[in-house]
Batch of 2 targets.
Target 1
Amino acid sequence: MDIILIAAITMDGYIARRSDEIISWSKDLKLFKEQTMSYPVIMGSNTAKTLAVELKGREQIVVQRNDNPKEILAELDVEKCFIIGGGRTYTKFAPFLTHLYITPHPIIFGKGIQLFPTLKKEISLKFIQKIIVAETDGVFQFQYKVIR
Ligand SMILES: NC(=O)c1ccc[n+]([C@@H]2O[C@H](COP(=O)([O-])OP(=O)(O)OC[C@H]3O[C@@H](n4cnc5c(N)ncnc54)[C@H](OP(=O)(O)O)[C@@H]3O)[C@@H](O)[C@H]2O)c1
């Protein structure tokens, strides 16, 4: 199964200013919908509270601090699933990721919630492709495969 992290990030690697921020600066919501449609989306409880859009047509799995990521993934019988945030949840699922879909945005926060706030082990990536999100604004999604 492909386990795909999908995130909009700032140029300095943040996904939000605060854990209760409703993300309004992301320009990749249309692409997010296309890519995740019909697949399970896994998120943390903070993200579940701050969703800017309804995630119709997708099984939504909200994880809490005591949930075991391996067990959650083992229950899925699908070709792919998406880890949609936030930082704590990206970190929790980091050892299991097969792909990263990252969309850097031309904005800098200086502080906030990092993509991986407490990552223990480096992740090596191989570039796959770039997808245009908003070309005139310089927003592209970069897709990588995780090398284990
Ligand atoms: N830019 C993007 O693409 C993007 C995508 C998704 C989300 N976001 C943003 O990310 C932010 C949320 O990220 P987040 O990292 O705060 O939350 P999160 O990953 O969405 O949810 C928090 C998770 O961490 C657990 N947790 C809370 N306190 C903990 C603790 N002390 N020790 C261990 N686990 C703990 C929670 O479990 P409990 O339920 O048990 O507390 C929950 O599973 C929001 O602002 C959201 O808008 C951005």
Target 2
Amino acid sequence: MNNNFDIGIIGAGPAGYTYALHASAQGKSVVLFEKKQIGGVCLNKGCIPTKSILHSSEVYKQILNAEKFGVTTQNVTLDYSKVLERKNKTVETLRKGIELALKNAKVTVINSEAKIKDKNTIVECNADIYNCSKIVCSTGSSPKIIKGLEFDHEFLLSSDDILNLASLPKSILIVGSGAIGVEWARIFNNFGVETTVVELASHLLPLADAEVSKRLERIFKTEKIKFFTQTCVKEINNKKITLSNDEILQPEMVLVAVGRTPNITDKIDGVTYIGDVTGEIQLAHYAIKQAIEDIDGIKFEKGLTPSVVYGTPEIAWVGKREQDLEPDSYKKSLVLLSAIGKAHCDGQTDGLIKILSQNGKIVGAHIVSSEASSLIQQITIAIQNGITVDKLKEVCFPHPTYSEGIYDALFKL
Ligand SMILES: Cc1cc2nc3c(=O)[nH]c(=O)nc-3n(C[C@H](O)[C@H](O)[C@H](O)COP(=O)(O)OP(=O)(O)OC[C@H]3O[C@@H](n4cnc5c(N)ncnc54)[C@H](O)[C@@H]3O)c2cc1C
């Protein structure tokens, strides 16, 4: 085989496979190394499998609450093995799609571990050498390990372990209330698992706007998800957990979701690093944008990377948080979902749409609502293109939709 390529990529997650497909579309010869499965964490251990399980949990909960909507159900049962079966099928279908796209694009895929020797040489684990005009490292990240909470994969679980539980536990403690911790808290709670969250920061979802964090805490209380903030695990003794506030818990298992560590040792000059491995914003869409920026030269504003936390209701934000802005330097508009017709129709009235503006332009938006993951994109487009609040008021928003909350908010800025 000819081992000379224009581009050599290590890691076939969203960053790596996007780079490969776009480079190939430009007529470049590409070799892509993947030691596990095409699709990376996003497809195999992250975004997609969690959203599939989350959806099953939401269907289950909705059916249990169906009477509220005038629908009577009886003998509702949950077969968790089928939930996993569906998750696996979803992942496989999507993986096959990416594999086919790579094949059609004539990307050479090598299913093995690879190492970068220098800025133009990749060594595959069988010692085969690949010469590449350019090397891209997109090796991603792994669950962060913290002292005292090292994964034993039975009691102390990582976000990888939790995906394949043979059955649901009766109770769980989740350490960390970032996007992953909150998402799993909602999944377990929907399935009826007694769920407790422990967070070291003063609020849940510490990276969110403070008002959003508080709203989530209110929702957790309504949903009966127990949580402790400004708290950490002090001691674990024979599966008995003592928290720093001296609370004692005996959950059946613990999910440790305290962040992710980039899969990197030393950076090599002349190599391009993209995605989670950079340790910047560890989101799939950020990884994809970094790939496209480098290969296609399409710039993007990193500060306008939307964040989404899945579950009911979704939480999404973009741009500045209120706590980032100088007092009196901005205008704030808050629309409660209880003022939105569609929210009442859907029985989803606990939420808010908050928009922040400066000098007639939106600088940040924070949404706790059904469809927040899509709503946030409207605002992202507006901010990125400098569309003024007055200009946005000229846009027609359909009724009844959650997007009307955005429209209403404009008139309070
Ligand atoms: C539970 C969970 C839920 C998530 N949900 C979301 C979400 O909803 N939305 C979102 O945007 N993001 C989400 N993320 C984050 C998202 O998965 C990552 O940001 C994304 O996968 C990063 O893509 P990447 O290509 O940089 O790296 P990865 O997806 O980590 O891919 C890196 C790949 O490189 C391979 N590799 C590593 N070293 C080598 C080597 N030496 N040789 C060959 N191959 C190698 C790995 O096997 C892996 O397949 C979630 C993450 C988790 C854990």
